[in-house]
Structure formats: C-alpha cells, structure tokens
Amino acid sequence: MHAIKRYLSATLAILLLVFAVSAFAEGEDPMAKYDEMITITTCRSIGDTVQTYIDKKDDVLTDNIWFNSYRDELGINVEYVWTAPSAQYEEKMNAQIAANDLPDFMNVNASQLKQLVDYGMAYDMTEIFEQYATPFTMEMMEADMNVALDQATFDGRLMALPQVAGNRDGANFWWIRFDWLENLGLEEPKTLDELVAVMYAFAQNDPDGNGENDTFGMGINKELFGSLGLGALCDGLGAYPDGWIEGESGIEYGSIQPEVKEALALVSQLYADGVLDREFIVKDSTKVNEDIIAGRIGLFSGQHAQAFYPLQDSVVADPEADWRAISIVSDDGSTPKTMIGGSAGSYYVVNVDCEHPEAVMKLYNYFYMKDPALSPDFDMHYHGRLDADPNSEITEWYQWAAINSAYPMQNLFIHRGVESYFEDGDESMKENYWVADNISGNENYLAGDITYWSTYAWSGAGDYSGEGRIDYYDLNGMFIQNAYTGANTDSMVLYNATLEQLRLDTFTRIITGDASIDEFDNYVEQWKALGGDMITQEVNEAA
C-alpha cells in the first residue's frame, strides 16, 4: 500500500491545476460528446431498495435518467457485465480480480485498489484527470484539501477516482439535554471537570424529575468506540484509540498511547461510581438508542446524523427534550481536536486495458455536474423524484448513476446557507435546492411542527445543531487528520481481528473493574508482540 507523501500531494494538486487550466485555455471541452457511440462496461452492487425496483422494472438499471443522459449527451453507452447483492459484492470482486476478469471500470475498496495497483491492473489516471477533470470537479476535490485524491494516489500517480464522502461529518461531539441541565441548575459544560460533574448529576440527581433513580450519566455501547462510544471523551483528552497519530518516532497507533490509559481510568471511575449503565457490556447501539428515546440517557458522544435517529424519536416521545450539540472539552484549557479520517470511502478503478479511460472521467464529471448542491448545473431530476412522474416509487435517482461521489463539504454548505438566511435574511440562499429544502424544514419546526425537529437540529442556524457544531470546529481548527487513511497493510489483514478483540476485552475489563488500570501497560506490550509492531512498520513505510 502506498499513501501519497505530503509533498507529492501538494505537487500533484499544483500539476493537476496547471494541466487543467492549460487544457481549457486551448479550448478543449472535457465533456464533448463522442462522434460515434462508444460502449464501456462496469459492474455494481445491488442493495435491497434497488432490488425492489428492479423486480418491478427489470431494465431500470440501464433505462433511467442517468444512463439515458450518458447516451444522449455524452455518447457513452454503459453496460453492466455483472451485478451482485451488496452483501456478496466484495467477495465477487475479489474473485474477478483473482481471475483477471474485469470490466472497463469498477468500484472497489481500499484493499482491492491496492491489489489492482500492485498487480498492474489499474489504469494510471494522472494524465486523464489532468486533461478531462472539469473546473467544478477540481473544486470538489480541493474542498477536502485533496485528501480523497491522496488516498487514490500511489507514488505520486493517481490510480483511481475516489468516491468521496464528507470526512468532517465523522467528527465527534456531545449531544446533551439542555432541559436536564436547566432542571438541575447547571450550565453548559466548558471543561472536562464540568462535563464529569454533569455526568454525575445526570446519574444521581433525578434530572427528569420523576422521582426515580432511572437515568445514566452518559450513554455507552458495548463496542466502546464508533457510534455511542467513547469518542468525544477520548478526543477531549487528546486520545485517539481508533486512529493513527504523528509521534516523535513516526506514525504511531493511537490506542496504545498514555492518553488512552488516562481516558480508561476516568471511565472506570465513572462505572465504579454508578454513573454508567451497569449493563452497557451487553448493549449494542440499538439498545442504547432505545434508552435515549425512553429518556434514560441525556448525554452521549455522537455525530451529526443522530439528529434524525434516535433524537427525533426522543423529541416526539418527550417534546420537552431539548437536545443540543456541544463541543468536546479538554482537561487543561487547551483547544481539543476530534480526529477525522479519509474522504474516500471507495474508489472507481479503470481497467488498464480499457480503450476509453477518459470516458470514465466524463462520467465522474457528469455526476458532479448534476447532483451536488453547489453545482450550477444541479438538477433535482437526477437526484430525487421526477416531477414528470410524481407517482414514481423511485425517489433516489442518484443511486442509479454508474458513478456517484459527493461534495465533501455539502452538509456544511447547507448549514451555512440556512444560517445566512435566518441570521442575515439572505433570500438568495433559497436559490439552492438543498438549502431551500432545509430552510423550509427549519421554518416548519419553528412554526410548531415537531416532525421537522431533526432538520432544525441537523442544519439549523447557530452552533447547537449537528452541522453547526461541525462548522464551529471547522472555523476554530478543531480537526486532526488521521495520519494513515490507506488500505489495510499485509499485517493488518493477518492480525487486526486478534488485536481488536484484545483491545475490546482489555478495555472492557479495565472499565468494569475486572482488571486494574495497570493492565493497560500489559495490553500495549501484547499489542506490539501480536503483530502491532509489524503493522506500525508497514504503515510508516507506506506513508
């Protein structure tokens, strides 16, 4: 695996811009239609929703607004040589790679991308991107400081087109019930000490006023990390157990750092004092969400999307529930940072034998033309329900595109538009479909329709919405980039499962008091001996 080195990243970005500008200066149109129809092949996974539509109209995969436009506007006929249910797609792709039986382009994960590059099966897209990427596509790539392009770059060469997602949306923050704070005469916590005091109060001082001892200080699930885990708490202590950090001797694994030991000691004390649910070790995220909706939890580490679930359900169940997103807090007064990963969730790889690799770039450009909120050519017909067919059951047309990707700042863009409208009265914000849609949802909630609370809590003006909190982080330098966002190394493939189970078992035993905090030191040594040192070496070689 080769992750692009930082100086190569900067150089690549400059070169791409120079080549793009020079190409357009010569009057070339990167989206020019082919004189004669060409055909390129691909494959795709089929989710349950898509399969439902296929069962009703078997040719919908290639007879839809996207594929018809490819033919009519670009002169490109796209054909699927195979499809597979989503659960089987990765296995099917692995088999096709092993057999060297590949279509012209395909969607793959990071490990498969590495294989294709190592085997010489991936087309080098560097010059294709330089010549055919439109200015708007370039703008989309630069929105995340080229992180997605970096992930698709090997030894300075762009070997795939990244399927981009918004990495900022993975930021951790605290969702907290302000009505509980008010009931207890507490202020929004600004320091770790204040946050811990809130946890104790939520667990011990009857914040819901029902006279029962039925609330917990903080929601936590049995997996410890990810959704409803310890992310926001760890971030505040400068601990990043799920990522890689820049250390004195190179890139180091976050889970074995002393800051994680400090976080575990705190959580263990919370558990011992009855602040946490004693049954968390058997509760997955589904069960914790049920506790949130039932009013047993008023504080948890989360992300932006929890405004829609479970918090919308919580507010419907109890309209007095005043959930707001607040920042992670540190223990020393410094500005804490939350870790964000790579922007690319998967990759579009072009077969080295593809006759028209530029056609794949055109399809990539075309999606960015028609779908992202910021695009001057955005067309709702390509994203959602067709106005001409209001009874159509297909409401998410973007899923039918042969290539799709995202504007990594789209959700933040929507929030900022909503904020400009409500705080500055900027009516021009309604000219953008997605901003207008969220303005409408916010207005509906403010007019008393509680079913729109989630829109208000997700995109609403100010810092207390999910995207508002991410905006606050963005403006105040509160992100830290995971130092390694590449594919699994060879040793990761061999040892990750064992090491992750070791971490879960050890951390759980420390938290519940079945092991002392000093067991963390044994964990570090075991992690290194059971493959961790080999993984660390490979990560540093790759980076």
UniProtKB/TrEMBL annotation:
Establish whether keyword Lipoprotein is in the entry.
yes
Superkingdom of origin organism: Bacteria
Instruction: Return the Pfam families for the record.
Output: SBP_bac_1
Endpoints of the signal sequence: 1-25
Q: Which UniProt keywords apply?
A: Cell membrane, Lipoprotein, Membrane, Palmitate, Signal
What this protein is called in its record is Extracellular solute-binding protein
